[in-house]
Amino acid sequence: MHPVLVELGPFSLRFYGLMYVIGIVLAIVMLQREVKRKGLPLTEDGVANFVMVLVFGGILGARLYYVAFNWDYYRAQPWSIPAVWQGGLAIHGGLIGGLLAGVSFARRRRIPLWRLGDTIAPNLILGQALGRFGNFMNGDAHGVPTDLPWGVVFAPNTPASLQFGATPLHPVMLYEMAINLSIFAVLWKLRTRPFRDGFLFGLYLLLYSAGRFVVEFFRADSLMLGPLRAAQVVSLLAILGVGMLLWLGQLWATAPQPQAAVRSRRR
User: Fold this and answer.
1) 259 Cβ partners below 8 Å, 6+ apart?
2) Is the model's pLDDT at 260 over the cut of 50?
3) How many folded domains does the chain comprise?
4) How far apart are CA 140 and CA 127, in angstroms?
5) Residues 6+ apart with CB under 8 A from 88
6) C-alpha angle 111/116/121, rounded to 5°?
7) Per residue in 132-148, pLDDT tens?
8) What confidence score (pLDDT) does residue 86 get?
9) 265 pLDDT exceeds 70?
């Protein structure tokens, strides 16, 4: 593994940046088809604008979240706060920032919020899977030491190597990548079913949070809330929140059918 894919003089193409580009392109192409199928009032240019709004909000939220949990360091070096190319993006902060940006976009365009969330959910988890491959090549978001046969020794000068040297580590990025791809397959399979608006987005949050909660036990660089792992706390809150909505029936079962359709069935 090596973080740089191509290096030509001062120019370097890093795997992490490439995964972002691939995720953005796939999101635009896939969403342009899905918004038509779901009847959302978005043109092709509108879809591209929406994706870029999510990306900007996600990166901003991910960076602010990470900086907040490492404030002692960044308070002493505030000029390092914008340096996202040095690492330091937290996925839960990215989800919060992207969610706020998406809500603002939907309200300005008067787009049904839950339906828009269902439409973007498969792309979100696919983008997260691609991002984890970027983490793997970058040697960050790494795991704890292991003597299992699939333990990975990361390249010198990566965050994993700087912390553990040549010790084999759990490739937690690949664990989460596999989980995310599985969630994507489930969401993509279910996307044409007549579920109530918001169900797919809720299922995305539920499945991802459960997977992340488990993977976090093997992480070596977790952000902490006192003695607790922040990602596990946020994951539990998300699971409880979605579970409550399911229990209340707000995200469960199929979408309500028009009364005319119900009467015609009774005849």
Assistant:
1) none
2) no
3) 1
4) 17
5) 63, 66, 67, 70
6) 165
7) 999 999 898 999 999 99
8) 67
9) no
Spatial contact of 113 and 80, defined as CB atoms under 8 Å apart: no
Tokens representing residue 208 in the block: 């991802």
- Write a three-state SS string for 70-113: CHHHHHHCHHHCCCHHHCCCCHHHHHHHHHHHHHHHHHHHCCCH
Nearest-angstrom CA–CA distance, 28 and 30: 6
For residue 85, pLDDT beyond 80: no
89: domain range?
A: 4-266
Closest CA to 46 of 59, 56, 36: 36
Return the pLDDT at 245.
80
Does 82 have pLDDT greater than 90?
Answer: no
The amino acid sitting at 254 is T
